[in-house]
């Protein structure tokens, strides 16, 4: 059985990477960190000085990911979601966290003031969640809070449960 692809998205610092790390360890999924893929393959159009980050070449990234997505079993991690084709994903998980924790996490990453402010606004105004809601069917979108270790454990279990339900549906369909 081909496993589904899952998208994990959310504001930087909300806990996406740690969740993906645990999903890979516990569920045997293949982690596709878009930031790492972009960096390794230089899928960058330019550098945005104001936001202190590279500007993604979406077309080159999507061309790279297309054959990987066809194999299934991927957990794709990125802070943005709207440009990925819906057909790639059986579930989209939007990771959220409290703004006080997020602020501390971003400061610990040595983000500049402007970058912290921008990311804080993204979380406050739930930009990643709204992006997902605009780009994907509501029945595949799940919002998870990632403030504590307990939240992280619960989130992994929730995704594990979802995956088991997905497998059961696939077996019935065959």
TrEMBL record:
Coiled coil: none annotated. One of its GO terms (cellular component) is nucleus. Its EC number is 2.7.4.3. It is an enzyme of class 2 (transferase). GO terms for biological process: ribosomal small subunit biogenesis; rRNA processing. Broad-specificity nucleoside monophosphate (NMP) kinase that catalyzes the reversible transfer of the terminal phosphate group between nucleoside triphosphates and monophosphates. Has also ATPase activity. Involved in the late cytoplasmic maturation steps of the 40S ribosomal particles, specifically 18S rRNA maturation. While NMP activity is not required for ribosome maturation, ATPase activity is. Associates transiently with small ribosomal subunit protein uS11. ATP hydrolysis breaks the interaction with uS11. Keywords: ATP-binding, Cytoplasm, Kinase, Nucleotide-binding, Nucleus, Ribosome biogenesis, rRNA processing, Transferase. ATP binds at residues 13, 15-17, 109. Belongs to the adenylate kinase family. AK6 subfamily. It catalyses: AMP + ATP = 2 ADP; ATP + H2O = ADP + phosphate + H(+). Monomer and homodimer. Interacts with small ribosomal subunit protein uS11. Not a structural component of 43S pre-ribosomes, but transiently interacts with them by binding to uS11. This is Adenylate kinase isoenzyme 6 homolog. The keyword Ion transport does not apply. Residues 33-56 are annotated as: NMPbind. It comes from the Eukaryota. It comes from Anopheles farauti. Residues 108-118 are annotated as: LID. It is found in: Cytoplasm; Nucleus. Pfam families: AAA_18. GO terms for molecular function: AMP kinase activity; ATP binding; ATP hydrolysis activity. HAMAP family: Adenylate_kinase_AK6.
């Amino acid at each position: 059985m081909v496993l589904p692809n899952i998208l994990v998205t959310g504001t930087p610092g909300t806990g996406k990477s740690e969740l993906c790390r645990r999903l890979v360890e516990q569920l045997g999924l293949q982690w596709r960190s878009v930031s790492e893929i972009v960096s390794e393959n230089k899928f960058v159009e330019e550098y945005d000085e104001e936001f202190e980050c590279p500007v993604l070449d979406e077309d080159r990234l999507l061309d790279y990911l297309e054959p990987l997505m066809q194999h299934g079993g991927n957990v794709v991690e990125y802070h943005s979601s709207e440009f990925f084709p819906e057909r790639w994903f059986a579930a989209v998980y939007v990771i959220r966290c409290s703004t006080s924790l997020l602020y501390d996490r971003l400061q610990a990453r040595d983000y500049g003031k402007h970058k912290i402010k921008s990311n804080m606004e993204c979380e406050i105004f739930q930009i990643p969640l709204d992006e997902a809601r605009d780009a994907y069917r509501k029945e595949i979108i799940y919002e998870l809070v990632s403030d504590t270790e307990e939240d992280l454990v619960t989130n992994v279990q929730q995704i594990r449960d979802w995956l088991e339900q997905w497998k059961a549906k696939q077996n019935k369909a065959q």
